[in-house]
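Below is our example:

___
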Amino acid sequence: MGQTFAETVLANKAGLESTSPGEIVEITPDVALSHDNTAPIFGIFEEMGGEKVHDPGMHAIFLDHASPAPTTLHAENHRIIREFVREQGIPHFFDVGRGICHQVLVEEGLALPGEVVLGSDSHTPHAGVMGAFGAGIGRSEMASVWALGSLWLRVPESLQIIVHGELPPGVTAKDLALHVIGDLGADGALYMSVEWHGDAIRRLSLSERAVLPNISAEMGAKNSYIPPDDLVFDYLDGRAQRAYEAIFPDSDAEYARVVEYQAEMLEPMVACPHTVDNVKPLSEVAGKRVDQAFIGTCTNGRLEDLASAAEILTDRRVADGTRLIVIPASSEVFKQALDAGYIDVFLQAGALLESPGCGPCMGNHLGVPAIGEVTISTANRNFKGRMGTKESEIYLANPSVVAASAVTGEIRAAGDLN
């Protein structure tokens, strides 16, 4: 019997010929990712008796969740992390302003096909856009990786999602992702390895593909994977930090579940408060008043996302009574957007531009809503209090819809502006 992607990559890392779902294996990850939570992980590491991390080169540490520091407490946290990085001799450190960990990990050539990325962040499956096994782990688990260089994992069951055809105009990977989550539910892929296949997936750009493994965390996925192709290999040419070997599932692999979708049948979707699987067609929520619009995050803060928003905002202004916040996912994206003229478009439209990072996505700063306010966002989560205020509402949509909503002051499709 053939092996799925997860079964193969974990067998390779464990030195086994094969694995099966439910089996426990001990592996050494290629990358151990942490961010602003590095300081509390260090505290656990010290409690374990740790002094020096097992392999400094394995670590990739980012300051992105509260970047730049909004309070003295956050600033002290950053100081501790910077000292830790210097003392441990960790080479892959990205200070405030470089961008969101998942985006920067890809840009820096540290998320590679066939490798394993373990991260103390739930959206670590994002690395699957490069054909890596990316999985989120807890702080205590990460401290163990620091101390020992290895960790045990349960081999997940695998879910194959096949998307046929081609997405229609105005429909994006974000709409596909929301449709799938709405269909399967927030626990539809609980501790599963999600594999994305089909013509529609292969036709997506890398930027669009990245949305799918990123938001798979909202279905409970352990990891999420898109088979790498020439788009990935060309992107990594001259960028990859190490030699790598791509891994693909066998043609006769056995999946716990297979679901199929026709791309042509999809339409723009919106995730409504207060769960990401409360998904409705845009047409059913159009007209909802919007106080704040946010374009950014590791889900939709890349250049193509900013380009689609800039197209909507050209020669238009943000509606009176509505705020638009734009935060590029990384400094690389920011520079590209500046060169392309998108930043000027945003400023002319009356948007606020902030430094690369997570921003208001998790409610630290740079756009916390007031009580009773409504935000439409390109992010991946909308539970109560996600953006810092429990008494507010968060809607999730693609960048064009968010931009159009900012212009009209209510949830609208881009086509409504013509």
About this structure: The chain has a mean pLDDT of 97. DSSP finds 15 helices and 18 strands in the chain.
